[in-house]
Amino acid sequence: MIQPRSTAAHAAGTVAAPGVEDIAPGVPMFAQPVFFGSDEVMQVRPQSHTKLLAHYTMQRRKIYQDFSSSDSDMHYWVTPKTYWAQVWPAALVLAQHVIENGDGMSGKSCVELGCGMGLPGVCAAVKGASAVLMTDGEELAVKAAQLAADVNGVGERATADTLDWRRGVGEKTYDVVMASEALYDEANTTPFARTVGKLVAPGGRVLIGNRELPPARPYLEDFLRIAQEEEGLKLVSHERKTLKIDDDGWATVDGVKACEFGFPGDASEKEGTAFSMSSVDTVLVDM
């Protein structure tokens, strides 16, 4: 368990941990404790969504030599690239599940698809997984996930790499395959189920965190059907928890505080209104 350096910072939910470096020019990072009952794991996030957005905006201007479009137009194009830096409800609940049921992780190989900040993957390593690969299509997300593994002292067993699962995943298989917030698009559902089926080793397990927002839930049902009919996977358990953003800006899972939701460097931003209340499903399927 990683202990924060300051009681005040601990109460505020933000910690400037040693060894946390910027992942890009002008994008300062901070380590944030996430609480799972008596367990505590650090995730590493940008301090400011505004500065992260400015980084991607300037990057796009340089690539396309476009210095005439307004910032608002640029933000429309680049905002999706910042999604990895949010505290996603399904990732938080999936990570909690890994911590609460961590005995099954000991000695296992794991891969996390679309890891974002890599919280579930880091939790798997904290709970004894022998090798964890956290993957995301966004390079800065991969850097943040690796920093989180290092800050939690599991960097030798948990590594992060750039991978867009839609473009192929190779031949390697894993004991545990994890993903959260992946079933948001009908076009992805069948390819995702087939990818998971290809990645999970015989006798392995798949952990999916999925937020119930129309039309996400029908996609979860479609995923389960395809996984069972085409990939030979079988449903083991299906549980639901409620994530809520309190008035003080903290994310709670079934009423228990987990972590501060917003970006500390953007006090004026009203981040999180879309997630003020979410039902999150955690699904286990076995090979």
Structure characterization notes:
With 287 residues, this protein is α/β, with parallel strands linked by helices. It has helices at residues 7-12, 49-64, 71-78, 89-100, 119-126, 139-151, 186-199, 216-231; strands spanning 29-36, 39-46, 109-113, 131-136, 158-162, 174-180, 200-211, 234-245, 250-253, 256-260, 277-286. The strands form two sheets. The chain has a nine-stranded mixed β-sheet, sandwiched between helices. It has a two-stranded antiparallel ribbon with strand order 1-2. Helix 2 packs across helix 3, helix 4 (89-100) packs parallel to helix 5 (119-126) and helix 7 (186-199) packs parallel to helix 8 (216-231). Mean pLDDT is 86; it is low at 1-18.
Taken from the alpha-carbon principal axes, the silhouette is globular
Mean pLDDT score: 86
- Taken as a percent bin, the fraction of beta residues is 25-35%
- The total of helices stands at 8
Q: Write down the Rg.
A: 18 Å
Helix content: 25-40%
Distance between the termini: 32 Å
Write the H/E string, N to C: HEEHHHEHEHEEHEHEEEE
Question: Oligomerization state of this entry?
Answer: single chain
Strand order of the largest sheet: 5-4-3-6-7-11-8-9-10
Largest sheet, strands/sense/barrel:
9 strands, mixed
SS class: alpha/beta
Low-confidence stretches: 1-18
Give me the count of strands: 11
Walk me through the topology:
Layout: H1 7-12, E1 29-36, E2 39-46, H2 49-64, H3 71-78, H4 89-100, E3 109-113, H5 119-126, E4 131-136, H6 139-151, E5 158-162, E6 174-180, H7 186-199, E7 200-211, H8 216-231, E8 234-245, E9 250-253, E10 256-260, E11 277-286
Parallel strand pairs: 3-4, 3-6, 4-5, 6-7
Antiparallel strand pairs: 1-2, 7-11, 8-9, 8-11, 9-10
